[in-house]
Amino acid sequence: MRFVAGKVAVFRWMLPLAIAMALMGGIYLAVRWSAQQSDAVAVKRQQHLVELVISKMQGSIAHDQESVTVWDDAVRKVSQEWDPRWVDSNLGSWMNSYFRHDGAFVISPDRKPLYAFLAGQTNEQEAFSEIGPEAMPLIAKLQERLAAGDEGGTSEQVLSIGESDLVRIGGRPAIISVKPIVSDTGDIVQEPGREYLHLAARFLDGDFLTHLGDDYGFEDLRFSVLPELGRQRSYAPIVSSSRETIGYFSWLPFRPGADVMKATAPVLLVAGALLFALTSALSVVLRRRSRRLQESQAELDHLARHDPLTGLANRASFNRLLARVVATSTIDQANALLYLDLDRFKQVNDTLRHPVGDRLMVEVAKRLKETAAGAAISRIGGDEFTIIVARTRQDEVEKLCDALIAAIRRPFEIDGQPILIGLSIGVAVATGNDADPIEITRKADIALYHAKSAGRNRYAVFGPHMDELIRTKRDLEQDLRAALDAGNQLEVFYQPVYSAQSHEISSLEALIRWRHPSKGPIAPDAFVPLAETAGLIDRLGAFVLKEACSTAREFPGLDIAVNVSAVELAQRHYAAQVLSLLRQFGIEPSRLELEITETALLDEAGVCEKNITALREFGVKFALDDFGTGFSSFGRLQRLEVDRIKIDRSFVHAFDRPGGGVAVVQSIVGIAHAKGLRITAEGVETEEQSEILRKLGCDELQGFHLSRPMSKNSLRQLLGADKAQGTSSSSRS
């Protein structure tokens, strides 16, 4: 009996142990399997990431090349007036210092290397001999495509055709890319297939692996010809366009599952129950994280399609919806697009500040949805909306416009304060499915312009007569092109900038003027924005900069400032063009100051900032023009370095108003001086304004009270009189 009782006791003790061990074993196997699956997914993602980075690097190198190969100056310097120093500065070592390319070569139409640069190689012939065997097939293929007039793959972003491939050079993996050196204006005639070529090389080992590992968390990233560095490593093949594997990237893979196993194995050995609880808790946490991730993804998807403030559809959604409505229309179905713009909203926003403006915008959106129930409403800009009304008639659209205007004209009440704004609407009606959505939007925008011109708080339906506005704009654009070609209508005027303390001329600002042969003087406000939208701003800016450099050479004692459009500054080759002109005229970079607007601060691609940084390294100075009138802040100034701030004339003109601009200017001067920036006040029109600005601490003054903009001949007379009198005070009478 004692024996039987002993066996029962052992059984009772062993059974829980067996159950616990079985539970521990099951949990261990489940966790191990999950860890292996997680590791496999992580390894796969890292392999895909390596392939994606290499693919994007190929496109990036070709894009970098286009910043210097699609350029008239480059065509002239390599084919007409060979200039080795210029080629090295702009097509060679520049590509290494600015874009980190390891090699840059200029190839003649006969496939001979005219210039060769390869990091670590001083002999040009040996440099090209290293890369030539791999590059020649690409060069030959590109020349065949050029001769055949092939333009496949070009777009607004890709300006010229090219060839690139993954190769192995001297046992090292590399990307090589070949691009033609072509005219950006089309003014230089080139024989197809006989263009000079630019060859770029970027090795995929060395510092590339270091940066790739640091940026994306690859541990011990290496390159090997064969996958023979051990089974514990992950491999990603480097495959050329001909499907040849030229080598492998290998790394110690990120294995989150293995890390989890190492952390939990001791716990499993100590207490199965605790591990089970921990696993359960971990499962709950993972589910919650997954749910939050799904919610975040859904929120991101919603934000990608909607305006975050009002919840209405955004511009991208509007474009897609309008295209879909037009495409699905029957031949006799009429659709209407309403283009809405709020009247006096900017004044409300400026007076009551942005928080009130945001709340007002939300209330406006609510009224639009209530009034145009069932229609597709979008917010496409600050105070601009669109409404798509499908399957409608013009009389119904007109009734809706009246209702919308009446709804917005009713006073809004925010924090007990009534706010009155208005609404102007432009309407375009299109029938059938062959209408162009872009043309419909254009017509609605033109109609909106007419509604605002007619007195606001009204609507206008697009009619053929409104196209006259477009024709006028096109005629002005053609006239501007002709003026740039003729060279005798455009002239650069110069407005002196005076020292606030000594009253002497300290520098000059170059200003473009256009005297049309039949229309007379045309204001820069009319033709400079047109040049930006018509793709002429590069030519116009180059004209002003060239004239300014000529004047700076004539008056070596004065610095000169030139206004630069954000569109110009966003061109990748802009810094190289400026430096080339300075060298051509023998001007020290420190004598040139480029005046930029606050739009340059909003460049999301960062090209403006790169150009500014590159030019500042050579000594070119920068000024922020019209400070305080847009979106700028001193926080942005901490990121984008400038040397001088130009206070907008609106603050100066507000001096004589109660609570005017004196306090604002005083604050700007104090903060700017604390940061080491110089201050120039624009729009000085009276001696009283001049004296106030001097006492506030402004460094320079500029305005009609001191001197109006003048031609170069008048400038010569002014500076000649100043030298004769030893002072510039007489010029300000």
Automatic annotation (TrEMBL):
Start and end residues of each EAL domain: 473-723
InterPro entries in the cross-refs: Biofilm_reg_signaling (IPR052155), CHASE4 (IPR007892), EAL_dom (IPR001633), EAL_sf (IPR035919), GGDEF_dom (IPR000160), Nucleotide_cyclase (IPR029787), Rev_trsase/Diguanyl_cyclase (IPR043128)
Statement: the UniProt record of this protein carries the keyword Transmembrane helix: yes
Transmembrane feature ranges: 12-31, 265-286
CDD domains given in the database record: EAL, GGDEF
Domain GGDEF stretches: 333-464
Top-level lineage group: Bacteria
Annotated SMART domains: EAL, GGDEF
Any Pfam family matching the protein: CHASE4
Keywords in alphabetical order: Membrane, Plasmid, Transmembrane, Transmembrane helix
Signal peptide boundaries: none
Name of this protein: EAL domain-containing protein
Species for this entry: Sinorhizobium kummerowiae
Organism ancestry: Bacteria, Pseudomonadati, Pseudomonadota, Alphaproteobacteria, Hyphomicrobiales
